[in-house]
Specification:
Elements lengths: L4 E4 L4 E7 L6 E8 L2 E7 L1 H21 L26 E13 L4 E8 L8 H13 L7 E6 L1 H16 L17 E2 L7 E2 L2
Parallel strand pairs: 1-7, 4-5
Antiparallel strand pairs: 2-3, 3-4, 5-6, 6-7, 8-9
Helix pairs in contact: 1-3
């Protein structure tokens, strides 16, 4: 079976969002253009890492080009997207591997999210080899979402993604673990239950 690639070049919309209540949220990346919508599920830490690395990559592009790249320092207000995810949300796959790259010729940030793949291997060496084969197999590899963004779109995505990640349960001021509405057993208080 050939690899399925969901390509958005450029997307009309590319956002991170959630479904569910804080503490039980499911995170999604969602791209849309021309009536097509693709939603892929991923972990909260993956969303945070993607947003942080995206900002770092854009900052590096600005630094290396001496400020000549079409990348704003912050997300422009006119491309800010605070709307909820488009419905219905149909998960195409769960993300395993992500990659970022800057296309200097087209002046675009390329985001790739590949499906999580379970590999069978007898040793660490075999596992590493199987992972490399799966990632390099353009014809028969795992499904992939590939999105090409302008600098402004990328900054807006990163800002929204970090806002979504930070919109969850507030952290405990003592141990930094999330506070539940029912209360919190703080390890730094030796099990004393704190209210939210």
């Amino acid at each position: 079976m050939s690899r399925q690639v969901f390509l958005y070049d450029p997307p009309e919309r590319f956002v991170a969002g959630t479904v569910g209540l804080p503490g039980r949220r499911t995170f999604f990346l969602q791209a849309s253009a021309g009536g097509r919508v693709t939603s892929v599920a991923l972990e909260k830490t993956q969303v945070a890492a993607l947003a942080e690395r995206m900002d770092e990559l854009l900052d590096e592009v600005v630094r290396r080009t001496g400020g000549n790249a079409p990348v704003p320092a912050v997300a422009p207000a006119d491309v800010t997207d605070t709307a909820p995810l488009d419905t219905p949300i149909e998960e195409e796959f769960r993300v395993g591997t992500m990659a970022l790259a800057w296309d200097g010729e087209e002046q675009r940030l390329v985001v790739e999210a590949q499906a999580l793949v379970e590999l069978d291997a007898d040793s660490e060496e075999d596992l590493a080899e199987a992972e490399e084969r799966a990632l390099q197999d353009e014809e028969n590899g795992p499904p992939m979402l590939r999105v090409r963004l302008t600098g402004a779109q990328a900054r807006a995505f990163a800002k929204r993604a970090l806002d979504v990640v930070n919109a969850g349960r507030p952290p405990c001021p003592l141990c930094s673990l999330p506070l539940d509405p029912e209360g919190h057993v703080c390890p730094r208080q030796n099990g004393y239950r704190r209210g939210a």
